[in-house]
């Protein structure tokens, strides 16, 4: 059985790691590459950089950060935020990123998924999806940072993403995000049963128990974590120890000396 992955996510604004709620009340926490290096020492399986400003002026800043990170990290690096075209994919990957995450752009132009997969390989294409339960009990897909309901049905969209060539789904529960009440188990189970590509669980993580539960109760391949690690409430080593104790397969090769 493949090891379950633990993936720290770093929101980056103006070249710094920030944390807030729905991008409001952002607090600057430090340098992205320093955070990433520390997380690799703690046995993170991958790193995600999310450029939440993603303006033309900031492209050079995030490009330099990606280049620096790629030089010092040995684990995969995924980059998302403001990516709309194949040229954007090319620039991010040429800086040393291993994967590119797209969200709103994929909904607006689904052909971008296929074009990127054909040019760079399915393994490079991560489709990030923000979803929220509706009055009928199914899930709607949102874009623009969760501000716009597309009316797309979540299950239909994830199946389409797989057919178009996505290599992975990064699924965020808007209902759970920021609550620290645990991942959205029901939503994750529905999606994991609908596709055959890896699914990354995101939104709602508040404890190591939440991470253990998401792997024991769903077929999620990875768990995305931010605040717990950024604020040093727990280390990735400790998460891996808890997973192994609970018979969840996890890579346990801390790089600490």
UniProtKB/TrEMBL annotation:
<dbReference type="InterPro" id="IPR011060">
    <property type="entry name" value="RibuloseP-bd_barrel"/>
</dbReference>
<keyword id="KW-0028">Amino-acid biosynthesis</keyword>
<dbReference type="GO" id="GO:0016829">
    <property type="term" value="F:lyase activity"/>
</dbReference>
<keyword id="KW-0963">Cytoplasm</keyword>
<dbReference type="GO" id="GO:0005737">
    <property type="term" value="C:cytoplasm"/>
</dbReference>
<keyword id="KW-0368">Histidine biosynthesis</keyword>
<keyword id="KW-0456">Lyase</keyword>
<comment type="function">
    <text>IGPS catalyzes the conversion of PRFAR and glutamine to IGP, AICAR and glutamate. The HisF subunit catalyzes the cyclization activity that produces IGP and AICAR from PRFAR using the ammonia provided by the HisH subunit.</text>
</comment>
<dbReference type="InterPro" id="IPR004651">
    <property type="entry name" value="HisF"/>
</dbReference>
<dbReference type="InterPro" id="IPR013785">
    <property type="entry name" value="Aldolase_TIM"/>
</dbReference>
<dbReference type="Pfam" id="PF00977">
    <property type="entry name" value="His_biosynth"/>
</dbReference>
<comment type="pathway">
    <text>Amino-acid biosynthesis; L-histidine biosynthesis; L-histidine from 5-phospho-alpha-D-ribose 1-diphosphate: step 5/9.</text>
</comment>
<dbReference type="InterPro" id="IPR050064">
    <property type="entry name" value="IGPS_HisA/HisF"/>
</dbReference>
<feature type="active site">
    <location>
        <position position="11"/>
    </location>
</feature>
<protein>
    <recommendedName>
        <fullName>Imidazole glycerol phosphate synthase subunit HisF</fullName>
        <ecNumber>4.3.2.10</ecNumber>
    </recommendedName>
</protein>
<dbReference type="GO" id="GO:0000105">
    <property type="term" value="P:L-histidine biosynthetic process"/>
</dbReference>
<feature type="active site">
    <location>
        <position position="130"/>
    </location>
</feature>
<comment type="similarity">
    <text>Belongs to the HisA/HisF family.</text>
</comment>
<dbReference type="GO" id="GO:0000107">
    <property type="term" value="F:imidazoleglycerol-phosphate synthase activity"/>
</dbReference>
<dbReference type="InterPro" id="IPR006062">
    <property type="entry name" value="His_biosynth"/>
</dbReference>
<comment type="subunit">
    <text>Heterodimer of HisH and HisF.</text>
</comment>
């Amino acid at each position: 059985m493949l090891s379950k992955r633990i993936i720290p996510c770093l929101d980056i604004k103006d070249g710094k790691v920030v944390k807030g709620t729905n991008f409001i009340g952002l607090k600057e926490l430090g340098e992205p590459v320093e955070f990433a290096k520390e997380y690799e020492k703690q046995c993170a399986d991958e790193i995600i950089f999310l450029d939440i400003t993603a303006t033309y002026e900031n492209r050079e800043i995030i490009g330099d950060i990606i280049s620096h990170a790629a030089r010092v990290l040995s684990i995969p690096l995924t980059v998302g935020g403001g990516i709309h075209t194949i040229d954007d994919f090319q620039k991010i990957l040429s800086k040393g990123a291993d994967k590119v995450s797209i969200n709103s752009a994929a909904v607006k132009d689904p052909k971008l998924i296929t074009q990127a997969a054909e040019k760079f390989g399915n393994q490079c294409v991560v489709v990030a999806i923000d979803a929220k339960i509706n009055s009928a009990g199914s899930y709607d897909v949102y874009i623009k940072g969760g501000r716009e309901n597309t009316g797309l049905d979540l299950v239909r969209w994830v199946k389409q993403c797989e057919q178009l060539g996505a290599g992975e789904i990064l699924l965020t529960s808007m209902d759970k995000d920021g609550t620290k009440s645990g991942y959205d188990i029901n939503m994750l189970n529905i999606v994991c049963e609908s596709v055959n590509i890896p699914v990354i669980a995101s939104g709602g993580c508040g404890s190591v128990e939440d991470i253990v539960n998401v792997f024991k109760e769903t077929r999620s391949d990875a768990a995305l974590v931010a605040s717990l690690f950024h604020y040093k409430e727990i280390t990735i080593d400790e998460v891996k120890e808890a997973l192994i104790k609970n018979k969840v397969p996890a890579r346990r090769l801390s790089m600490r000396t």
